[in-house]
């Protein structure tokens, strides 16, 4: 029997080796074709540069970057079809030289979709799905999934070996694409043909960010016009954008612009933090109405005549003339500063007419003498000529002697208008009636704050003001992706919509994780004012990142603050239950430092309230700004949004609940960042939402023996209650 068992094992091993060799040989063919394309592209790039054709050179440079970006994981799958065809799936399409036969299908083409959606109950012509794992240019593993009537469907999560390897692998501080492990639920959203705004609502670990980025790659492939119109990806922080920075290049896309909301106005330096109440007030949509009213209030309609001195002459501007000019400027529909030019032109025309009438009119006395200094025969007098000369109008000799002048020609009128506009007295009068505005002055006056610094909440106000006065951004995009979209205020949305006239967007977020006091509590409320009913909601329901034990620990928190939100379903168990540890407040920093020092397995994220960042950074010899590549990363709940770590320690959850405007959401974010282990260290009694967590065991997987005891009650009775033990 032992001999039979050994023989079966040998057959199995040699079978695997044989299949690995087959895939290795094919992979070598693919890389040979990729190298040939790189060489051809490099030659064209050099030629275009030599010709001085910068535009063409930029195109070939982008193509070279695209080919370089797919070096890792070029091919990751194979479909064996019932009709005998064999289809390879990868990061881009490759064809035989001079032929149309594909060597490799781009994962975005329709023919490749079955790799993500085929199930045993709906095989879509697929007999076998093979996942190919590579390291560099070497095949290191193959994983086959047979799709037949006896197999389990997608709901049973058959063939998850590659997926589980990805989600349980050690974190590196950088997000990687999930193109090799997309599931049917995610694929449906990526390929969704929404013509407006697609909102993807998903709980922790459901892959919202990855889905959004893969959707960008899909749209750029299927809608080539977006490459010229541009795609913008908006994230919650620069930390987050750095974290996801490798995903799109790995999918062969290098032309996407990434930014935060605040960075949409690069001319504004954010160097101040507002209190939560101020943040909430500044984020309300009513601020747009208040800014518009403030702009309108700057325009003055005089009730009495306005006297304007020009070249020692007094010109009287009647209220009706001002009113007529104001109405014409208002009907232009232009922003304030541009409409001001219309108003100025109308008023200058009025003033020029008054001057011309004064210079050309000849009024005679009963004895035939001219009152205005002109001659009795209607010729221009010396006073008239001096006024014209002051206005820059030069008349020839014939103009002096040819009889009465009733009208200056257009050149003369233009010169007169220019002289009026250049006159400081005239300009002061015009500015008094319709002053020029700047966004900074307008916002400062409205808020009653000195412009000695700006907060992130001020940025959309400045952008709104700039739009109202005619200094708005002129860069727009064909499609916009918004990650952690629940954090955007109503004013943020107004600023973002101006960058996307087509209203084509992919919006991903989780309302249960909103931390911004001005953030969203309803998708309909923030989107309907801009797109009415042109938005659709899609949901992600499966949690691939967070172990079931940790999600179970968040149940009380979620039920208490979001009773209508169903928890997402975790696909795996880590085998390590989360724990809590009570300590004296005076020992909190030391306790956390001891726990961090004892940690050995993977990347550790320590999530703490803002008040603890500096003392913890000093104790742990870390910078206060998170380094996502470090073995230990220190950050606030807000900075942790969208990130993940092998293990997480939460410092002082009670302080997070007390000090953050939506502390329960911030705590929920902190608890759901771990892929393996979660620990909570609390001074005194734990918050009620965490009271059910078990006390820290003496030995915790992933840690060296630690000097921290399982329970550390203090003399003041602040340790865990007896009922917690």
Distance, first to last CA: 52 Å
Gyration radius, in Å: 35 Å
- Category by helix and strand content: alpha/beta
Q: Judging from the principal axes of the Cα atoms, what is the shape? A: globular
Which regions contain 5 or more consecutive residues with pLDDT less than 50? 1-13, 150-160, 400-406, 709-725
- Total DSSP helices: 28
The average pLDDT is 85
For the secondary structure, the number of strands is 23
Q: Oligomerization state of this entry?
A: single chain
Strand content: 15-25%
Residue share in helix: 40-55%
Largest sheet: 6 strands, mixed
Your description of this structure?
This protein is α/β, with parallel strands linked by helices and 725 residues long. Helices cover 42% and strands 16% of the residues. It contains 28 helices and 23 strands. A 6-stranded mixed sheet has the order 3-4-2-1-5-6, with helices on one face. Strand 1 and strand 2 form a beta hairpin. Helix 18 crosses helix 19 and helix 19 packs across helix 20. The longest helix has 50 residues, at 2-51. It starts with a helix and ends in a 42-residue tail after the last strand. 39% of the residues are buried. Residues 1-13, 150-160, 400-406 and 709-725 have low confidence and may be disordered.
Question: What is the structure about, briefly put?
Answer:
The chain has 725 residues and is an alpha/beta fold.
Task: Offer a few descriptive terms.
23 strands; single chain; 6-stranded parallel sheet; 42% helix; disordered C terminus; 725 residues; alpha/beta; disordered N terminus; 28 helices; 6-stranded mixed sheet
